C-alpha cells in the first residue's frame, strides 16, 4: 500500500508542477501572444482607420488581447478602468492628453507580450476667441478669456500664462474653455494682444485686445456723421477708449431718432475702410461694438443698417441690459448685410431708434467695427 500511495503522491506533485509551468508561460487569463489586426471607429468596425482625434472612441481588434497590463497611445497611458476589454476587442476613448513624445503608434502590453499598431492622433490647437464680456475692459477688471483646449495645454494657475500687450496677468481659474484673469495695469496705449500660453509645445494662442481693425465709429474724433450732439466723455459711464456716443433722453413710441448715421460721402467717413471681402462674404465677419445701458434698453427698437444706401437691409437689435457695465456686442455681419456687394467708396451706416413703446434711454455706444471671425 505504501508503494501505491507514494506513486499517487508523486503523480500529484508532477501534475501540480505542470500546471504551474503552464501558468507561468502564459498570461494570467490564459491568452497567448497578442495580435492587433485592425483599429476602427466605434461606429464602423469593418474599416481600418489611420488616425483619430482626442476624445474619439476607437476599437482595437485582434487576438489574445486579454490580461492587458498597459496600453499607450504615443506616450500617453490609457486608463484601463475606462476601457472595455475582451480577448478580441478593446474599446476605449483616445485620451485628451498632449503627448510629450509622438510615435503615432499604439503600444499594447499583456502577459503574453507586446504589440504595436499605427495610429496618428490629431492634437487640437489652443484657441482664444476673446473676452467673454468686454473686449475693452479696463485695468483691474476681472475678465474671462474664452477659447478651447485650455485643459490640454495646462493653462492653469500653476503653469499657464496670460499676457495683455506683453504685460503678465495672473491665471485665477481655468477650465476647458475659460481662463479667469485680471486685466493688469501698465498695458501700452492702443490695441494690444491677449496671448495665452500653456505648458506644452505649440500651446500659444493670440487674440486682439482693444481691437481697432476697421473701426467705423469711435468718436475719437467725431468725423461728421449725423448725431454729433451725442458724442460725450466722462465718468458716467466711465470711458473705455476716449469719447463715446451717449443717448440720454426720452424717446417716444415710433419717434424717428437717428443717433449715428450717414452716407459714404460724409466728410471723414471710415466705412470705405471695410474690406471688400467683408461685404462680399459677410458670413465670415462680425459687426461689433461696446454698449453700456445705464438704464435698460427694454422698449422701442434699435435698428442697425450697413450697406450701399439707407434702403439697405436693417437689423433689429433685441432688447438688452448690461446693468450699468460696458459689454461687447457681437453680431454676425451677414445678419446685417443681406445684399452682399462691395463698394470702394464706402457704405451707409446708421443706428436708429424707431419702434413701439416709449424708452427712457440712458445708453452709451463705442468702438463700432467690422472684424474677421476668429
Determine the mean pLDDT.
88
Instruction: Please report the distance between the alpha carbons of the first and last residues.
Output: 92 Å
Shape: elongated
Element-level helix/strand string: HEEEEEEEEEEEEEEEEEEEEEEHEEEEEE
Architecture per CATH nomenclature, i.e. the level-2 architecture of the largest domain? Sandwich
**Structural class by helix and strand composition:** mainly beta
Instruction: Please estimate the helix content.
Output: under 10%
Estimate nothing, just give the exact number of structural domains.
3
Proportion of strand residues: 35-45%
User: Low-confidence spans: pLDDT under 50, at least 5 residues?
Assistant: 1-28
For the largest beta-sheet, the strand count, sense and barrel status come to: 6 strands, antiparallel
CATH class of the largest domain: Mainly Beta
Rg (C-alpha, Å): 32 Å
Quick overview of this protein structure:
The chain contains two helices and 28 strands.
Describe what this molecule looks like in 3D:
By secondary structure, the chain is mostly beta strands. It folds into three domains: 35-122, Sandwich (Immunoglobulin-like), CATH 2.60.40; 127-209, Sandwich (Immunoglobulin-like), CATH 2.60.40; 215-372, Jelly Rolls, CATH 2.60.120. It has helices at 2-25, 276-280, and strands spanning 35-41, 51-53, 57-63, 68-73, 76-77, 84-85, 89-93, 105-110, 113-118, 120-122, 127-131, 142-148, 161-164, 167-169, 171-174, 178-182, 192-197, 204-209, 215-217, 231-232, 244-251, 257-262, 285-293, 302-307, 314-317, 327-332, 348-353, 359-372. Strands 19, 20, 21, 23, 26 and 28 form a six-stranded antiparallel β-sheet that branches. The chain has a four-stranded antiparallel β-sheet with strand order 1-3-7-6, with no helix packed on it. β24 and β25 form a beta hairpin.
